[in-house]
Design a protein that fits this description.
The protein is mostly helical and about 425 residues long. Helices cover about 70% and strands about 0% of the residues.
């Protein structure tokens, strides 16, 4: 009796309490991050001469705050009042209940049915896979076959359950959890179990085979991979398959290529949806600041480095780093002298540089390169952010200019020339 109570409590904890904890975490996370967003926006709006409205509006929409322009009276008080109101959780009831029901069914099956000999002896199309039967439908080999099918599907269920937990918690961290997320998780559980069940009937017979259990777990964790595996095994000709050469062209530039990002920071950025350099280069700095523990200037520096890598590739960016060029802003500073222009262009476009005409050719090529870099909408947004931060740290009587992360100037003339070089783009 005690053992049964423990099993029931475990199944209830894993199937019902976990979704409830996820919903509570979502509400608490919204309150905390919304307050951080409101405080940052109020500080910038009060002190910065240059305003960054679009990025803040995107962040406000994500965290269910009304556009700032629509608020009457004190916008901070109105924002805090919106944060205090609890988001509607009614819409989560049915999808979360469906996920809990599917999860509970899986755990009850795994915890209670393994020792029920009568259950495994009864013919079942899913467990038997329409296996050839004798006239005696309760033959011993049928029970063994179906029990092994149940063990394989249980392994797939556990893999799918782990995947859905990581999926739902990831949605909470990035504040993307919606009622649909629970439906997607429930479908993933069912899909993983069915894929493993079909794969089991294609791989081994009635004799136990523990080697299939790890494969079943992986097929449940990656149901899409399982479907692709089944497609290849069954040689389905009417479905599109990936071109073999495409696998050779797939690569990822990890975020820890950036100065200041180690394995721990990389993992933390992955929680915010930044999985590689491209994600970082196109990230909204405001959302990244709200959703991670890192300060805004550090985030802007990381994004500037990432955009340099995306523009020229990791190898060229590493060569430029040895020249003192860490970010896209340093590229603009290198325009000021023919020698520095030639140094950069020899790394970026060595085939296009004419050694006989270094003065004129490099000016034209450098202008094209800057037009390509700062023509990107993400680079323009980053440039605007950098100007905002300059307006916050420089004395008010000084003209706001674009200062590169590594640039220094006593009279500001060099920075004004950089601004002129970049401003047209």
């Amino acid at each position: 009796m005690f053992d049964a109570a423990v099993l029931i409590a475990s199944a209830f904890l894993l199937s019902a309490m976990v979704p409830l904890a996820i919903l509570i975490s979502r509400d608490r996370l919204r309150r905390y991050r919304s307050r951080v967003l409101i405080a940052l926006e109020a500080w910038m709006m009060s002190n910065a001469r240059t305003k960054v409205l679009p990025s803040f509006e995107v962040a406000r929409i994500k965290y269910e705050l009304s556009p700032r322009a629509d608020l009457d009276g004190d916008p901070i008080e109105r924002d805090l009042a919106q944060v205090a109101t609890r988001g509607s959780l009614v819409s989560f009831v049915i999808p979360a209940s469906i996920y809990s029901g599917v999860t509970g069914l899986g755990f009850v099956t795994a915890l209670f049915l393994s020792s029920r000999r009568a259950f495994w002896s009864q013919p079942n199309f899913i467990l038997s896979g329409m296996h050839a039967l004798n006239t005696d439908l309760t033959a011993a080999d049928l029970a063994v076959y179906q029990w092994n099918s149940g063990a394989a599907i249980t392994a797939g269920f556990l893999g799918a359950y782990l995947f859905t937990l990581q999926y739902l918690v990831g949605r909470v961290r990035s504040y993307e959890l919606s009622p649909t997320s629970f439906l997607v998780a429930a479908v993933s559980l069912i899909e993983g179990c069915l894929v493993v069940g079909i794969a089991r009937h294609l791989t081994f017979s009635a004799s136990p085979n523990s080697g299939f259990i790890p494969l079943a777990f992986l097929l449940g964790y990656f149901p899409t991979f399982g479907i692709s595996w089944l497609t290849e095994r069954l040689r389905v000709r009417n479905l599109k398959r990936t071109e073999p050469a495409a696998f050779q062209r797939r690569f990822v530039q990890p975020a820890d290529m950036i100065d200041g990002i180690d394995m721990l920071i990389k993992f933390r950025l992955m929680e915010a949806g930044v999985h590689d350099v491209q994600n970082l280069a196109t990230a909204n700095p405001i959302l990244l600041y709200v959703e991670t523990p890192y300060n805004l200037l550090t985030i802007l520096d990381w994004i500037a480095q990432a955009q340099l890598i995306i523009a020229f590739g990791g190898g060229v960016a590493a060569d430029l780093h040895r020249l003192g060029v860490r970010s896209i802003f340093d590229i603009a500073a290198m325009r000021e002298h023919a020698a520095t222009r030639m140094m950069v262009l020899n790394k970026v476009w060595p085939e296009a540089v004419d050694p006989a005409k270094p003065e004129t050719a490099t000016v034209e090529l450098f202008s094209v390169m800057l037009a390509i870099i700062f023509g990107d909408v993400h680079a323009r947004r980053l440039k605007t952010f950098w100007e905002v931060m300059i307006s916050l740290v420089e004395p008010e009587e000084k003209q706001p200019t674009l200062r590169t992360p590594s640039g220094r100037s006593k009279d500001g003339a060099r920075d004004r020339r950089i601004t002129e070089a970049v401003g047209a783009y």
